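Here is the promised in-class demo. Please do not try to memorize the tokens; focus on the logic of going from shape to residues.
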């Protein structure tokens, strides 16, 4: 679910909502905070997998020519 902040700058890039949630999920996960691992190592272990797949689908929909009619996936 997207996080909305009143005093936050708006990011105009594609898939900005999913990107922010994915980054927050990784940086606040126990794998990074308590164990002190790099976020890339935690991704390989399978943490935040749902957001990773959603971010990939959003980025892939930017290249899909059918998305001109359907719109980009994500929020």
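The designed amino acids, position by position:
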């Amino acid at each position: 679910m997207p996080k909305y902040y009143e005093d936050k700058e708006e990011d105009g890039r594609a898939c900005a909502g999913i990107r922010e949630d994915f980054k927050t999920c990784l940086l606040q996960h126990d794998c990074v905070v308590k164990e002190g691992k790099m976020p890339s190592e935690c991704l390989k272990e399978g943490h935040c997998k749902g957001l990773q797949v959603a971010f990939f689908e959003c980025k892939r929909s930017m290249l899909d020519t059918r998305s001109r009619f359907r719109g980009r996936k994500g929020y």
